[in-house]
Amino acid sequence: MEAHNDVRRARPAIWQANEQLVVEPIRSAWRLASRFSADEVHTVCGVLEVNAFEVGPQGCSVRALYPAAYLMSHDCTPNTSHADDAERRLSVRATLAIPKGQPVTLSYAYTLQGTLRRRQHLREGKFFDCVCRRCSDKTELGTFCSALICPKCGEARVLPTDPLDEASAWECVACAQYSANAASVDLLLRRLGDQAEAIDANDVHEFEAFITKHEKLLPPCHYLMLGAKHSLCQLYGKAAEYLISDLSDDMLRRKRDLCQQLLPLIDLLEPGLSRLRGTILYELHAPIMVLATRAFETRSINKKDLQQQMRRVAQCLEQAAQILALDPEDSPERQMADAAAQALVQVNEWRRQIGNNQKC
């Protein structure tokens, strides 16, 4: 339960905020100065900042310490997933087979962020510099999710020369004819990140506009694009005026393609039975199913093609249910798992009926 007081004391904004909002009220307003020194209260602040988990539903979250979970180390491609239930009990499960003697890891950062932003977050909030396999690889495990499009050759290969040095220049590894200094790249990413953050969480049009506006600078695999695509995967089919039954075929294909673009990257960044993979698989089943049934109704495909598409739907639902059923019973993910399991029963019945009709 490290508090990193020396590091935190050297950052006036953090130390002074805790002094004003925590230390002084506890020691003065609560009249506990005789029981706890200022350094003791600052130490507890540090322990919380470094080791606590944010638990509880949105709008009602708290920071909580767990006597075993805090021992897990960080990795930007973690091998576990964790969730809390209604009573704030934390469950941790492996998402991959973990060999004996290997660390059990979780991620303190958002996995769909690029290396520069993840490392800044970890330094500012957890007070260490991450040097994991992903952070040390300028391609981020081959995903290129921080790469920029080169204005010289048009390839998405503008990368930091040293991903562990924030001051290192960015260069195009494809043509070697373009470079940018670290400060200008950082400023650009902050500006674009602010634009993405400013989009209303339910605004399909604005997310699509963001992708279109920046597609000549950011490749489809860039983390800012992935964030927008992840939002769109969920909004198509659920947002007002975009319910699944109301979507045009083009919108359904858009939802399907977005999900399919995300899955191979998720398999590298959050490998195994991750919650993110489970939710995307669940989102993917709907456009495949609706497009197939519409195409069959208009006789654009035959029963064999329909059966093939229903098999894909069943695979998505089966995998989604398997992954999301591992979450706590009262969680949204567990509800999604139950919905996936129920839909799978219905889809398999449809497949049986289609098969019987084919034989007739």
TrEMBL record:
Position of the signal peptide: none
InterPro entries found in the cross-reference section: SET_dom_sf (IPR046341), SET_SmydA-8 (IPR053010), TPR-like_helical_dom_sf (IPR011990)
Transmembrane segments: none
PANTHER family: SET AND MYND DOMAIN CONTAINING, ARTHROPOD-SPECIFIC, MEMBER 4, ISOFORM A
Name of the protein in its database record: SET domain-containing protein
